[in-house]
Amino acid sequence: MRLGIIGATGWLGAALGTRALAGGWPAAKMALLNRTAPRDAYAPWPGVIWAKNAADLCAQSDVLVLSTRPEDFPQPGFDGAGKLVISFMTAWSLDRLASLCPGARIVRAMPNGAASVGRSFTPWVAGAGLGSDEAAVVRRLLSAMGEEAQVETEAQLDYLSALSGSAYSALMAQAMLADALGRGLPQAVAERAVASVLASGGALAADTSGIDAMIQTYLDYRGVTAAGMQAALKAGLAQSITKALAAATAKARALTERGIGG
Ligand SMILES: NC(=O)c1ccc[n+]([C@@H]2O[C@H](COP(=O)([O-])OP(=O)(O)OC[C@H]3O[C@@H](n4cnc5c(N)ncnc54)[C@H](OP(=O)(O)O)[C@@H]3O)[C@@H](O)[C@H]2O)c1
Question: At a CB cut-off of 8 Å and minimum separation 6, what does 38 contact?
Answer without folding.
Answer: 9, 32, 50
